[in-house]
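Page 42, continued from yesterday. The earlier attempt failed because a stray header line got pasted into the input along with the sequence. Redoing it now with the clean sequence only.
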Amino acid sequence: MSKIGIVGAGAWGTALAAAMVRAGNDVVIQAIEPEVAEAINQRHENEMYLAGVALDASIRATTQLAEAIDAEMVLLVAPAQYMRAVGEAAANHWPQGVPAVICAKGIEQDSCALMSEVIAEAIPGAPLAVLSGPTFAAEVAMDKPTAVTLACNDELIGKVLMETLSSRHFRIYRTRDVIGAQMGGAVKNVLAIACGIVEGRQLGDNTRAALVTRGLAEIIRLGTAKGARPETLAGLSGLGDLALTCNAMQSRNFSLGVALGQGSSLEAVLAERNSVAEGVFTASSVTDLAHRLDVEAPICTAVDAVLNHFADIDTAISGLLSRPLKEETA
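This time it went through. Structure tokens are written below.
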């Protein structure tokens, strides 16, 4: 048994707590809201973020960050745009040599930093890993079969993490491509919003298939320009995650796009939710990163225009369809 700390008690952090207990570990999860910690400890359910899913009674919740990171490995599940603040707050208490496993998907605004770059700056010296892949929190929490990617530059630490975090229905594949494991998970959130808009506008399955395919080309272009391996982007943390989130209302980003496509305003959609749709924030980061890397990302740029620059949805769609005809290459 390993002692695992989880920072962030949203739906995904809670689901990971359930999976880690099933893998035979001792789990402590940190929540911002006292009522969430109380619900997990007293009623063994996260009623705010993962209602209806019973949790193992051995999962302990706390509101104290220092208590959660007093562990043998720590899963960082805070939203991407808060990851730096969480890392800086944890740095003074971080036990030497304890791996930081990044479980958030996104790119930091303004800096365009990946989460591994953020944590490397915030918690210098902590061994880093990334856990990513096609995962709906509720399904993981209910122990439905799931496969994910664990990326770690240190082969020995990667093997230990893989063996510690895996269980019968939570299967982990390992890679050393830390950049690739993050690029797929971040960019697919933006593309899922685009696919949701297509669904909301009732543009058909042909359109969505084309969007997913050309979206994957954007992921590969951006990822390889950043230093990722193409095979990682074609794997679970790339294509796998893209396929999942672009086709189901369980996806917060896809469902947000559907609402936009049906005519709702972004402000109205966000006001109805207590969870984060990372693609809303990552759209501007991806577009900025594409400019910095001199990479074409027309779909992500169009989503950014709709979300952040008041672009009309139909005008954005027309702009994509009127791009010059070209050879199909990545």
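Notes: The chain has 16 helices and eight strands.
Reminder to self: strip header lines before submitting.
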